[in-house]
Amino acid sequence: MAEVTPVADKVTSYFYALLFVRHPDLRSLFPAAMDTQRDRLLRALLTAAEHIDNTDVLVDYLQNLGRGHRKYGTRPEHYPAVGECLIGALSKYAAGVWNEEMEAAWVRTYTTISQIMIDAAAADELRSPAWWYAEVVTHELRTPEIAVVTVRPDQPYPFLAGQYTSVETPWWPRIWRHYSFASAPRSDGLLSFHVKAVPAGWVSNALVHRARPGDIIRLGPPAGSMTVDHTTDSGLLCVGGGTGIAPIKALVEDVAEHGERRPVEVFYGARTDHDLYDIDTMLRLQQTHPWLSVRAIIDQQAHQQLPDAVRAYGPWNEYDAYLSGPPGMIRSGVDALRDSGIPSDRIRHDSVEELVSAGN
Ligand SMILES: NC(=O)C1=CN([C@@H]2O[C@H](COP(=O)(O)OP(=O)(O)OC[C@H]3O[C@@H](n4cnc5c(N)ncnc54)[C@H](O)[C@@H]3O)[C@@H](O)[C@H]2O)C=CC1
Predict the structure, then answer these.
(1) Which of 148, 160, 245, 329 to mutate to test the pocket of ligand 1 (most atoms within 8 A of CB)?
(2) In the beta sheet, which residues pair with residue 151?
(3) Which of 39, 121, 180, 313 has its C-alpha lying 20 to 30 A from 281's C-alpha?
(4) Beta partners for 164?
């Protein structure tokens, strides 16, 4: 990986060129524009390499990846084709260090990885659809760029508060983006998302500016481990930046439904007060639940970013922490919370690698 990472872009371009020349029938499984997809392949490999010595985390990640591939129409026979082209691309760009032993190691690694993914997909097939259709039932523009979109899935959609899913719109086939659920599971089965239209974001712009009630989108399976541990009664420190407040709201609802009286401290960060599009909902929840405290941190007024503000209110060593927002906020948030006395294993957030392409 050290050899190929500096030329990652070339490796992935060459890999997809090989794949589509040797297996033209696979081209239709991918979106017309391959930009984000190209980055995703390398990120998946880097994630696998990074967790190579942590079998539990790696297997969990790969099982999730295998289940997530069902919505693309991936079948077991596609895996050897991908493996052969991946090794073709790696051997070309790591020519300086490539030898028979390394090739054998990559074949073993790829075979193991793909078997875990294939098995997870096969097990999932017995209990879940590959994707869900969902009809937009309400579309509420909260700011010129942020919409709250509520959808009704065509079949029951089981998930946990704090998780996310992948969304495909009818306007950009096969382009999938991640969005967190903005509510805990509801008795009417509806799901909602907070979407901010970002520059050059195909899916986010379609969801904010184009989607209307009656439109049908597709959803992948739920994913993510930013969920409440109901086996303890420690307090929850929840930090949501921008639309990152969505899963935090779901976590608060989850605690409320379990009838627990655990302290929940929410820090809701935004650039300006105009960007605090969901503050009314959060303040209403605070009024209803005496165990909940909500603080809005506005960059412009506080003259500091969200993680520094959270640190200033510490120490937080008694708390379990949840972080949701832009990747930069998550990275510096993790540092700030560790400084405030929370051990890493009690700080939960979605994978920053996944978030980099989320929401576009
Ligand atoms: N599960 C998750 O983690 C979720 C993540 N998101 C992500 O959250 C982001 C929301 O975007 P916007 O609303 O435009 O947020 P934004 O860019 O306006 O930032 C919101 C807050 O985060 C803080 N922040 C931003 N960058 C920071 C940095 N580098 N270091 C420290 N603090 C920083 C700021 O203080 C600001 O108050 C998107 O990238 C979206 O993908 C959204 C929903 C769920």
Answers:
(1) 329
(2) 136, 191
(3) 313
(4) 180, 223
List of domains in the chain: 5-125 (1.10.490.10), 132-219 (2.40.30.10), 235-356 (3.40.50.80)
Contact 325, 241 (CB under 8 A): yes
Report how far residue 348's alpha carbon sits from residue 329's, in angstroms, rounded to the nearest whole number.
Answer: 13
| Calpha distance 354→81 (Å, rounded) | 25
Output the CA 130–ligand 1 centroid distance in Å. Answer: 30
Sequence-distant (≥ 6) Cβ neighbours of residue 115 within 8 angstroms = none
Question: Does any ligand 1 atom lie closer than 6 A to the CB of residue 299?
Answer: yes
Sign of CA dihedral 121, 359, 335, 295: negative
The count of other CB atoms within 10 Å of the CB of residue 308 is 14
| Mode of pairing for the β-strands spanning 235-241 and 264-270 | parallel
Rounded CA-CA distance 301/147 in Å is: 25
Two structure tokens written together for 75: 């079948």
Distance 329 CA to ligand 1 centre (A): 6
Q: What is the pLDDT of residues 119-133, one digit of tens each?
A: 999 999 999 999 999
Q: How far apart are CA 179 and CA 219, in angstroms?
A: 10
- Comparing CA positions, the residue from 58, 193, 57 lying closest to residue 113 is 58
Amino acid letter for position 245: I
Cβ-based burial of 231 (10 A; exposed 0-12, middle 13-18, buried ≥19): exposed
pLDDT (tens digit, 9 = 90+) per residue, 165-191?
A: 999 999 999 999 999 999 999 999 999
Q: What is the pTM of this model?
A: 0.92
Indicate whether residue 326 lines ligand 1 (CB < 6 A): yes
Number of other residues whose CB lies within 10 A of the CB of residue 183:
17
Please choose from 159, 183, 271 the residue to mutate so as to test ligand 1's pocket, defined by most ligand atoms within 8 A of CB.
Answer: 271
CB of 350 shorter than 6 A to ligand 1: yes
Sort residue 359 into left (φ over 0), alpha (ψ -120 to 50) or beta: left
The CA-to-CA distance between both ends of the chain, in Å, stands at 27
